[in-house]
Structures are given as structure tokens and as C-alpha cells.
Amino acid sequence: MSFRKFFVFVVAYCVVASALIMWLRSPSMETLALAAAKTEQYGSIMLASSIRLAPLGLMFLIFLRRGDLSYRLTNAAFAIAGAILFQTAFSMTKTLIPSIVPFYADPILASVDEWLHGGESAWQLAHRWAAGIDMTRFVPVYLHVWTIPAVALPLTIALTDTDERRIGRFLSLYVLCWIGLGNLLALAGSSVGPVFYDSAYGTDRFGHLAAALEDTGMTSSLIGMTQYYLWDSYVTGNLAFGSGISAFPSVHVGVATVTALYLFERNKVLVLPGILFLAAIMFLSVYSGYHYAIDGYVSIIMIVGAWAYLVRARENRPEQVRLVVSA
Which residues contact 12 (CB under 8 A, 6 or more apart)? Predict the structure, then answer.
């Protein structure tokens, strides 16, 4: 997949997302105005983390040769436009999940999670392991640091990478993460996650989680405020950017896995930072109640499996070409 094809694909995705919104929700002007206001509010938070990349990008461009500069800026233009449209379309489609498949999978996911972890919920293990640690200090990693590859990975690839096969491989993984995990599998396993479980199903199964998040300060952190924003948007039927709820599988962990694999391919020195980033996102996803551990496990398996397939396909292609020529 080239950057041009990536952009064309994203435009088509936006058209489909817009059509689905109009068909399933038929939003009124009042709803659209509210969505715009909420989008601006949410976007200001996310922009704060992304804008810090500008000086680094300018410094990098200074050292490029003129030919490289033209090539990479063209790719960067497709990457920026594609990423912005992609996030907008994904946000729209994510809000539609409960309209297409009402939330149903949480009891199954919660039970599987407990079975995998010896009869305990994964969040309980996470809170026990992190006892005495102020986990609110790591909230920026989950929200701000994670946002950088989530939004800017295509741009980073466009500006720093010239390996066409690797570019195509990771653009494909990026698309798979958001659409394959975040749309298709999310529909199949429509769920809200531990933090919203009791509100969605009218139970007290995760009552101790709510108390634990309050005691650790997570409820009053930016993660807690974001969770309030998500539930409020769901209850009011808001279509604002970043307002959809979906637990299974974890796009957060999926993006972190794609990022770790890209760092691994670029330079083996970056393997450790990539693994630490993935581990941090996985742990915080469970600790904060956003996700069951199984959400992250499935994301890692899917992304690593797809990456291994694409790498193997790349290695086999030259052999196939030689066979055709010989014939």
C-alpha cells in the first residue's frame, strides 16, 4: 500500500462512514451542533500532545536532500490528510457500534478474563501489582504519548522511511488496527469494558473497580474525565469526535503493538522502548478499567499474526518471481 492508495482508501472509508451515520442515526442540526462543540473540547486535549512534534519535524526536514524532501513531503501530505480523515471517520463509525450490535459481550469477556487469571479479574491483579504506586503519573503515557503514533504514525513513516515494502506493510497494519480491530471485531464483540459494565448492564459486578479507581485518584485524573465524557456522550447519543465506546478488542493495545513492531524493524536498539511502551499501554488499559485483559491479548495476537504473514509474503515473493521467470 502506497501513501496515495492509503489516502484514496481513507476517502472511501469516510464516504461509507458518513452514509452509515445518515442512515442509522439521521442526526438533527441540534445533534450535529452538539457534536461539533464536544469535538472541539476533545480535540483541544489531543492537539496539545500532537503539536509538540512540530519542532522535531522541522529539525528533521532541514537535513533532507532536495530530492528526498520533495518525495517525502508528497507522502507527508497524503499521510496528514489521510490520518485526519481516518480519525474522523473512525470516530463516526465507533459511535454506531451499539446501534448495529447492542452491547452484549461483556459477561462473556469478563468470565473469560477471570478464567484466564485464576478466578480473579485482571484489574484486581493490576491494582495489586501497582499497590503503593501513584499510577496517575502515567496517565499522560496512555493519553498523550499514545496519541502520537495513533495519529502521526503514517506521517512519521512518510518523513523517515524509504523502504517501500516496509511502508506498505505498516500502512496495512495501521488500517487493520483501526478498521479490522476497531470496527469489524468490535462489532462482533460489542462491549463496553469493566469501567462501564455496571452502568450498561445494571449490575454491581465491578463495584469494587469503581471504588479502587476512586481511591487511587484515577477517577479524578484525565482518564477519569475522559471516561465520564464517553459515557455522557453515549447516554445522550452524541456523535462527537472520540466519543464512541468499545472494549473488545483494544485499539489502544493494537496501535502500541504496531508501533513496537515498527520500532523493531527500523532499529533493534528500539526494541526495548517499543516493548516497554506496549507493556505500559496494556497495563494501563486494564488498570484503568477501560479493557479486559483479553481485549489486549487478542489485539496483540491479531497484529503480530498479520505482521508475520506480511513479512513472510515479502520473503516468498522474490522466490515466486524467480519460478515464473524460469518457467
Answer: none
